[in-house]
Task: structure prediction
Amino acid sequence: METFLPPKPLVENADFPNQRNRHLSRLNCDAIDGPIIDIVQRFNQLPYCFTLQSCYGHFLYGCQSDTRNTAALPTTHTISTVTYRIAYLAICVENSLRGERLIQTLQQTESLDPDNIQFCCAEWFWKQQVNSYALQVEPDRFKCQDTAVLDYKEALKIERLRIGFFKRLSDLLLDLVGCG
Result:
């Protein structure tokens, strides 16, 4: 996020149920990147949070200029740099015991790779929606940016990490929401 901040403490928000209903009524699943639709939908099944924005993370290089591309990076020696559009999930969390537990659980996701996964707040999200948080996959040196230019080898590492990151979120949600 361009305005990365450490996570803020939850604050009172009496309008949370109405805000949640408004956001969910406007959710357009066609705008969600295919590989993470289930994750977004499962987060939105939790009554103590809702999603604000998400991105699977996209790699642009050479002739690959589709900003919604979700295909794996090719195995090649001809790509030297890759523009990476950040993978992230932004959510709003209810100020409750369940909301606090969710935040603590999501913060643990950083342990997959603390140099490349951040749990944070973005000031512009918070101004629009208090108690908003983001989990992002991006090299720490670029954590305040929405895109980064990576060398090919690092892009491959970030791609593998992104897959593991979303797998971890999916597994977490299976525990929280269940299979059906």
